[in-house]
Design a protein that fits this description.
Layout: E1 4-6, E2 9-11, E3 18-24, H1 31-44, E4 48-53, H2 56-59, H3 80-87, H4 93-104, E5 107-112, H5 115-123, E6 129-131, H6 139-146, E7 152-155, H7 161-172, E8 179-184, H8 199-207, E9 211-215, H9 221-229, E10 233-237, H10 255-272, H11 284-290, E11 293-296, E12 311-314, H12 325-328
Parallel strand pairs: 3-4, 3-10, 4-5, 6-7, 7-8, 8-9, 9-10
Antiparallel strand pairs: 1-2, 11-12
């Protein structure tokens, strides 16, 4: 299985999960709030903090088509175009946010949604490109990013296997095979019963690349489960407060939850451990103390033929294992064996 290097980290089997704290548009166009989101990601122990670089007129048409009309839950924002307009990350922030993240010791990422964004983020020295699910079918855009010869983390929400194959062919065709695929569900929030984590197994087997999971469910149960199933990247939206206005706050996790999720993922990785089924070092005392073995139920004088009623199978496991019970019966005691004394080979 291929491994991918992102900065000084490897993503792949036998490496820790790469955790992306997705700030997205939850900065609400407040630079101080954006920096607080970076602080939260650092405090939580995430590997990277990610924003989104888009401009409304480069991501959506300013059209009155009914599909672009929004419901009442968007509080006076009538169209998707206007929603995007209110969530734009000011481009002049990117240098400052990258500098601030570097200073805090966390990797800065931002998802590009247009060609200028690709160039701007490349000029900042961003370590890899994260591509959103909606953009994965834009083959010319994928090719353009792939030519930068940087690792690509590609979300695959809504995609069929054939579309994923086309995306990979486009990237590989530019001589770039540094790809991680993220399983993803596109609904905000995503119902747990429709997440389908088993699809990660299919993707890993089919494409032989590291697989991760980008989460839009409520809470943190599903990303932790994804790690247990083999996800090597987790991306999760977070916010300073779910009560803040904006479309992405309501399904994001809050600072204490992000910290708890990171800890749970690291504990999960420790628990996965090795595929070898064997006695753990910490179990050794219980192995001897709690397992049963063969004991003398009564005094057995030297030279006595041992019968079944002279024996008991009891804790601790300091004598012969119970599987040898029938072999011990009928043997002769080689010396005096006291009641409650373990039976060992040298005594019979």
């Amino acid at each position: 299985m291929r491994k991918i290097k992102v900065g000084n980290r490897f993503i792949g089997d036998n490496y820790p999960c790469f955790i992306i704290a997705e700030a997205g548009s939850n900065h609400d166009r407040d630079l101080g709030q954006a920096k607080k989101l970076i602080d939260v990601a650092v405090e939580a122990g995430a590997d990277a903090v990610k924003f989104q670089t888009f401009t409304a007129d480069k991501i959506a048409a300013n059209t009155s088509h009914p599909i672009m009309q929004l419901g009442q839950e968007y509080e006076g924002v009538p169209t998707l175009f206007e929603l995007y307009k209110g969530l734009e990350l000011p481009r002049e922030w990117q240098t400052e946010l990258k500098r601030y993240a570097d200073e805090k010791g966390i990797m800065f990422l931002s998802t590009p949604f247009d060609y200028d964004a690709v160039e701007e983020l490349d000029a900042l020295g961003m370590e890899c490109y994260k591509i959103a699910s909606f953009e994965m079918v834009d083959i010319p855009f994928l090719k353009y990013i792939a030519k930068k010869q940087k690792p690509i983390i590609l979300s695959t929400g809504m995609a069929a296997m054939g579309e994923i194959e086309e995306a990979l062919q486009a990237i590989y065709g530019q001589g770039n095979e540094q790809v991680v695929l993220l399983h993803c569900g596109i609904s905000y929030p995503m119902p747990v019963e429709e997440v389908n984590l088993a699809a990660m197994d299919t993707m890993k087997q089919a494409f032989q690349v590291p697989i991760g999971y980008s989460d839009h469910t409520l809470g943190m149960t599903v990303p932790i489960a994804a790690v247990a199933r083999g996800a090597k990247v987790i991306e999760k939206h977070f916010t300073l407060d779910r009560k803040l206005k904006g479309p992405d706050h309501k399904f994001a996790i809050e600072p204490h939850e992000l910290k708890a999720m990171v800890k749970a993922i690291r504990d999960t990785e420790k628990a996965i451990g090795s595929p070898v089924k064997a006695l753990a070092q910490v179990e050794e005392i219980h192995h001897r103390r709690g397992r049963r073995s063969i004991f003398a139920k009564t005094d057995i004088p030297k030279g006595t033929i041992i019968t079944e009623d002279m024996l008991a199978v009891l804790r601790p496991g300091i004598g012969l294992m119970p599987k040898y019970f029938d072999i011990v019966v009928g043997r002769v005691a080689q010396n005096d064996i006291k009641k409650n004394e373990p039976i060992t080979w040298d005594k019979i």
